[in-house]
Each structure stands twice: as structure tokens, then as C-alpha cells.
Description:
The structure is a single chain. The chain is α+β, with helices and mostly antiparallel strands. It is built from 24 helices and 22 strands. The longest helix has 23 residues, at about 10-30.
Amino acid sequence: MSxxxxxxxxxxxRAAKLRQTLDLHNHRYxxxxxxxxxxxxxxxxLRELQALEADHPALxxxxxxxxxxxxxxxxxxxxxxxxxxxxxLENAVDEEEVREFGERAKRxxxxxxxxxxxxxxxxxxxxxxxxxxxxxxxxxxxVSGGTRGDGVRGEDVTQNLRTVGAVPxxxxxxxxxxxxxxxxxxxxxxxxxxxxxxxxxxxRREAEEPPFANPRNAxxxxxxxxxxxxxxxxxxxxxxYGVGRxxxxxxxxxxxxxxxxxxxxxxVNPEWRRCTDLEEALARSRELLExxxxxxxxMDGAVIKVxxxxxxxxxxxxxxxxxxxxxxxxxxxxxxTVVEDxxxxxxxxxALTPVALLRPVRVGGVEVSRATLHNEDEVAKKDVRKGDTxxxxxxxxxxxxxxxxxxxxxxxGARKFKMPKECxxxxxxxxxxxxxxxxxxxxxxxxxxxxxEGIRHFASRRALDIEGLGEKLVNQLVDSGMVSEPxxxxxxxxxxxxxxxxxxxxxxxxxxxxxxxxxxxxxARFLFALGIxxxxxxxxxxxxxxxxxxxxxxxxGREALEEVPEVGPQVAESVSSFFADYRTVVDxxxxxxxxxxxxxRPSSPEGGAAPFAGKTFVLTGTLSARPRSAAKxxxxxxxxxxxxxxxxxxxxxxxxxxxxxxxxxxxSLGVAVLDEAAFEKALAAKKLP
Length: 689
Ligand code: IVH
């Protein structure tokens, strides 16, 4: 007999196979950046494993790929002890200081051990700006992990680290690699790639959540969440660069360590180099500095480490930093300059954003002449005034921002900045900020700035993606009064366009064609393009899936909206008031011939049609071709639903061997019965009999 305590061998085998396959795909995706399967295929395998584990609790495995998510939130973090301590690094701001570090090391060896060192080999690694952590593996299984903290006591963030795709839950054994040792604690940096950081911040702005100032804050803030579900939703990555305690293995050098870790599936930044002496190491760090702007992550320096561990042991540690390593710091992406004036920008939602106009300055290789001050409270907090000398910084793709004012340099009589009482564009009076809001808004929906930004958003790449409708052209169209709402775009005529300044005949034609093409967006894109507050790309998809059409969404009341998972009162309020205020804008678009396409429902993970959509299945008896959980996953992948209870509403009963009473009941209810062969045939053909 097989029950929950004693799963059939086929289920155990299938679970093992799925875990192995999922681990491999995970490694290919997160560590090697070279996926073998689509996201949808991965998801479908993961769902199958989830179903299997749910059916057979005895198959539980702490290293299962299903365990990356779903741990409950904590009240507080436990303490995580580091033994040996996690050290920090001394900094060198130029090459001379690095040479002095080399000389100091030699002197120390001479004085302490009477040992003369001619030259020694170094390893150079990029220094990423994130959060240092330790991962502990026992017998190849990830058992715990913690932040660096003060070097001795950090926070236990095990369940958050589990959600980081690049952290293997079970060590691999690549070809030629030794088996994982009994104990391996490795250290490294959790960080966020610039692209992921940009995406995260865009989503946060769309949701009107404050963006992160830089990738470091984003990484650190994401890892130190009590609710691992939040960490899981953040695109974190990790590179390992050090070792703590080990049992069953010893490394001879940093280069041997970095060479070995990938053999167990542990990600190492491939930019590390072994250099035969310090000058070569300096040359390599120069190379890294030159490549800094092109790197996919924020690099704040290069770490130069003595390669041989024996030498490292002799050199030892001075206070908190080792004598065998140094950080060659790169110049900060921060500069000082002068605030020449302020302007207040009006955004798509009418939001008023104060911006400092700066005396142009190069920051991290890019010229900066404006910096956002975010909102009124920020200006007040930093107390930035016209004429002030300020520190500006650029992080990732974030708009440059003013970090601080250098008060000593403030000119006499510099006056506090005040937000204007009326919209700088349409002069409408700005109402007081509602409680709890951080921004003031121009309340005029016809404000040319609001219209312009709305149209730009509507046409942007992630919305309707209307090629050829750039910023300048939108401005011209709005300023000339040819366009005052999105629907007007579709009424534009070739000749009128061609008559505009700097518009060639051919470009006019191309734009008309692009507009024609844009009339068939997916419903999700269409909803996103409308620019409803708090509805970013993701929520637009959720709403499209749930309501399937513009009218259904427009007519859904607040209550129906709030029933949708992920939709809270704020979004529900925003959506319903959008349709109350702007229904005609939407209707005009539909009248102009825009036809948003409803999603195929229910959407199939393969992205294709859903041939079992709307059909309910009941499984009975023993299936031989695949475990029940796999059968369930296969049905769901084709859009069908599996239920445990048989009723008149059931469409099909799938009967395996020794089916029991359900078969007789199905027959009495007149529900269609598929034997296993017919069921497998239907799955293969993606077609029901
Ligand atoms: S080695 C001696 N290597 O820099 C061991 N640290 O100031 C000290 N970091 O807390 C760490 N990349 O957060 C090392 N390749 C790298 C690093 C690195 C970034 C960070 C780490 C550490 C800090 C030291």
C-alpha cells in the first residue's frame, strides 16, 4: 500500500528526478546565465514537484527547489556567529597606497619571521558593493547563512538566502570536481545587477513606492527582510570570494579556492585573476577600473589578496583587517557642484517634482546638469538652496540626486526653496497634500504637462510601443493642440504630420503605419498604457487575466477589485476612480479602433492555447504512466482543473487501475470516463476526445 507516509517508488523517483532537473536549470539560469529551458517550462516542472510533495509529505526534503519560497515571516532575526570572524578590508585610494601595503607586508614578514620575500603572487577580484554574507554547507546541503554584521555576530538570514536563485540549496558536483566536503562555509557578496536594480526601481516608482537610492541599499534592504516572500520578489544575486571553516577539505591558496567553488555550483565572479606580482595586480585593477562603466554591476573597487594561504596565515590580522589584502578603492561616483536654480517638473499623474539645475559636472564618467530632489519633504530635509554647493551622486540608472549640502560653502542670504502654490505649467492652484501623501499634484487633467507625459507614457516601449513617437514629437503634437488625449493620435493624418517641423514625408508614413499596428495591443499593455495610478506592468497583467476585457474592469466595483489577489484597497480605489473620471478617454480609444486583445483564458504556461480550458477532471485509481501529481500538473498546464470531488459538473473522470467507487458514480452521473490510454493520448495531442 502507498499512503502519505509511504509514497510509491514511482513518486519518489519522479521527485528525485524533478529536483535534479530543477537544480540543473536553476544553475544554468542563475549561475551560468545560460538557460536550457523557458521560464514556463521551469514553472511547470516546479509545479509538478510541488503537487507531488503535497501529495506525499514523506518526500519532503529541505534542499528541494520548492523550499526556496514559502517560509513564514520571522518576528526577529536570530544571531549568526562567524568563526573565524569575517574581516573587513583596509582601503587604498591610489596605487601608491597599494605599493605601501605591499612594502608593509614584506617588512612585517622580515621583522616577525626573519623571512625575506622577493615577490609574491596576488589574486585580484572586483569589489562589488552589496552585503557580505556567509553560507554554510554540511554534506553538500545548505544549512544556514548569515550577514556579516560586526564580523563576529551577524543576523541569521537563512530563509532569505534560500530565495536567492544563485545560492545552491544542494552543492553540485561538476565533472572533475571532488565531492562536496563534510563542512564548507563560504563567504561572499549578495548584490543586485544594475539592470535588475533599474527594473525594480521603475516598478517601485510606478507603484508610487520610494525607489532605492542605489543597488547596495536595494540588496541590503532586500536581504534583511523578516518576510522571505519580499526577499524572494527582489532580484538578488551572489558571488563568493572567501572561505570560513571547512572539514574534509583544505585549500592552499585563494586561486585554488576560487577555482574549486564553481565545481560545486557556487558562483564566483569570473573577472578574478592571479597575478605574479604587485605591479601586475595593479595593472589588473586598472583594467577593472577602465571597465567599470560597462560592468553589469556597481563596482566600488578591486580587492588585491596575497594568493598563498600559508603566507596569509603568517601575515595575520591587524585589528579588524588582514595584512594580506587591500581594497583599491575606485573614485566615487559622487562629485560636488553648485545649484544654479530650481525647476518644478509636472509628471503624468500631475506629481510635482522639484529638480535642481546644476553647474555641469562629470560624475563617474557622465555629465550631470540636473538632479532630482524627489519631493518637498526631501528638499526641506536636505535644505538645499539656490547657490549651495552640493554633493551629487549617480547610482545605477537612477536619475542623479543631491546627497547633501556643504553648509560651509553656503552663500550669504541664500533663501529656502518653496514649492510653488500653482502648477508651473498650467497655473492651476495646487491643493494641499492629502494626508499620508508625499507629493503635491497639479489637479488639472488638461494641464499640458500632464497630457504630454500621459501621451509619452501611452506610446512608450513598455506600453503601446509606438515607434517614431518620441519625446520631441509628442511635445509638438500637444503644444500645437493636435493631440489632447491618446485617442487623438489615431486620428492623425499623414499630410498634417508631414507638414510639421522636422518631419519628413517618410517618417510621417512610418508613424501612421506604427499607429495602425498599435491598435492591437494585449489587454495588459493597454491597461498599463492608460497610466492608471498604482497599476504597473505586473498589476496590469493581473487585472487583464482576471477581468478579460476593458468593460468588465471598468464596471467592476471596488469590492470585486479587492477580491483579486494582489489588489489592495489603494489599487482598487485608484482603478475605480480612474474609470469614473476617464471613461470617455477609454471609450474614445475604443471608438478610434483600438482593440485590446483579451488574454487566452486560462492562460497556459506554455504560452499556447489552453485546450482543456474550463474542463474539470477527477482522477481515480492508480495511474501507471505518471504519478497523480504529474497528471494534475499536466492537466493544469493545458488549462484544465483537477478536483477531488465528483459531481454533475465534472467533465471527465480519469480512471487508472482499481478505480474504486468513483467510476461507478461517474457512470451513474453520466460523466465521461477516460481510461489511462485515452487520457495519455489526449495529453499528447493536447486535445480532448
Ligand atoms: S574579502 C579579508 N573580497 O568588502 C576578507 N571583500 O571592506 C575581507 N567585498 O565586507 C573580505 N567584494 O562586503 C572581499 N572580492 C571581495 C569583495 C569584498 C566585496 C566587500 C565585503 C567586505 C568588504 C570589506
